[in-house]
User: What shape does this take?
Amino acid sequence: MTCPMSAQHIAEQSGARTDFARTMSYGDHLQLEQLLSAQQPLSGDHHEMMFIIQHPTSELWMKLMLHELTAAQACVRQDDLDPAFKMLARVTRIMEQLVSAWSVLTTLTPSEYNGFRPSLGQASGFQSFQYRCIEFALGNKNAAMLKPHAHAPERLTQVQASFEAPSLYDDTIQLMARQGLAIDAACLQRDWTQAHSHNASVQAAWKTIYSRPQAHWALYQLGEKLTDIEEAFRLWRFRHLTTVQRVIGFKPGTGGTNGVGYLQKMLDVVLFPELWAVRTELS
Assistant: This one.
């Protein structure tokens, strides 16, 4: 009978490196000691560890999402859509990860959450500066959302820059105009700190694109990438709402919002209105 090889023997046979005294290891590259030492529960409650791992994990995904959105916008501004498509597809997949992440939090019962909730103080995901930058990049502009970051100048600078810049949809509308589609000047020369509102000329442009996709193939693909993103974003928000309602019911959130009521209103926000409205017109 042949004895099974040990894990050490398998590693040696495969040529895997095991001595990292003078070279970078996996943990070194990822700075795992720093990353894994950041979780410091304050309550002593068993369930707090899950809570404070879940949220930084989401923040890491949001960091990647902002990285991809920023690069995609740069490509759209340069009329270089092929790489933008890849980046925007990745944004959608990241949102799917964030939607799935709510499933972990749903394992938290109301009594378990109440065991450590007092230790959170007024800390809330509502205060996430990366989430706010994502919303601004997608066009949901609201000056009041700058205030939670006023105490941290570096963060405020980043959020303010995102607030004042054209959104991904603004860049798309500019691109449509450069491609010869008739867009109202009011959409092309406006205050970027204001949320985009439905415009008939933009809807007419999307109708032209969707009615003749072969003639406007790149813009047609871009429209579908944007629709994918908004659909995934809606699912993310919906799972947030249902998770909060499952864990705290209709109690106020730790950040001072009215909890489920606030999240319910956010579900009504439409980021790319003409892209959704044009579907009714198409025959």
In short: DSSP finds 14 helices and no strands in the chain. The radius of gyration is 23 Å.
